[in-house]
Design a protein that fits this description.
This protein has about 290 residues and is an alpha+beta fold. It contains 5 helices and 16 strands.
């Protein structure tokens, strides 16, 4: 995702130009390279669908935007005033609003959205992950929260329970905000986040620390994104990376505004715990 200015196209409507800025930001293509025909949004959407299809993607209309839940990019039309804004996260919030910056960080469920489109790949094939290099790092911090939305508690030692997570954490108890009420789901046992990301954001002036991320394990020296689909050990505890732990508007609400956008694709990892054991700060993290 990149920042981009509104295109200068006097024959296109203001809404179409705002939508173009959002689409350029998602695709990381200069806005001047997007087709932008004269007229209002419907004319532009037709041109963008052809342009995206040539690149393996598309714009999918969303039937009920205020209830839409998808951990991917989508563009909303908010009225009034009629402006385009980019949404991300589950639950989603606004991460880019070139026509109305006051919408940034707002939950989409609370906005008067009249139309929306998901930016999606046209290729549904699930390809097997290839084996990567050995990865190594260390545990720099541990944290649990005993209940949904409860304050985070920092620990030196935590007990991991296979199929549950860290003893005393809300997800190990099945009481997290996103815990399944019908049975265990993969990827909800444990969350990791890289200390390097927090350091970088803090240096850029973003008010964030480990506790604010509400993740369980703070890592140092290992690429947590590269652990998706791989088995690894934290100390002697065997885990498996499930998927990225993308930020959402819920995190923004609990830990303060401004975290949703900077943590996109850098919010850490969701993992399953495959064996019991003790995890300590300073413990080694290594792929197996």
């Amino acid at each position: 995702m990149i920042d981009t200015d509104l295109p200068t196209a006097p024959t296109a409507s203001a809404l179409a130009r705002g939508f173009a800025a959002c689409l350029a930001s998602v695709t990381e293509v200069p806005v001047t390279e997007l087709p932008l025909p004269a007229g209002d949004l419907p004319q532009a959407v037709g041109a963008w669908r052809t342009w995206l299809a040539e690149r393996g993607s598309g714009l999918v209309p969303i039937a009920d935007p205020t209830r839409f839940q998808w951990a991917g990019w989508w563009i909303a039309v908010v009225d009034p005033p009629e402006v385009a804004a980019l949404a991300f996260g589950t639950p989603p919030g606004i991460v880019l609003s070139p026509q109305d910056p006051t919408l940034l960080g707002r939950a989409t469920a609370a906005l008067p959205i009249t139309a929306a489109f998901a930016v999606a790949s046209l290729d549904p094939v699930l390809r097997s992950a290839t084996a990567g290099p050995e990865l190594h790092g260390t545990v720099e911090g541990l944290a649990i929260a005993p209940a949904a939305e409860a304050d985070v508690q920092l620990l030196e030692v935590a007990h991991a329970v296979a199929g549950r997570g860290l003893d005393g954490d809300r997800y190990a108890a099945g009481a997290g905000t996103f815990s399944s009420r019908t049975g265990r789901r993969h990827g909800y046992d444990l969350t990791l986040v890289a200390a390097e990301v927090i350091d970088e954001l803090a240096a850029a002036g973003v008010d964030v620390d480990f506790a604010a991320t509400r993740r369980n394990v703070l890592t140092r020296g290992i690429d947590v994104n590269a652990l998706v689909g791989r088995s690894f050990r934290i100390g002697d505890v065997l885990c498996r990376g499930s998927r990225l732990c993308e930020p959402c508007v819920h995190l923004d609400r609990l830990s303060g505004p401004g975290l949703l956008r900077p943590l996109i694709h850098r919010g850490g990892l969701r993992a399953d715990v495959l064996s019991d054991g003790v995890v300590r700060t300073g413990a080694a993290i290594r792929t197996v």
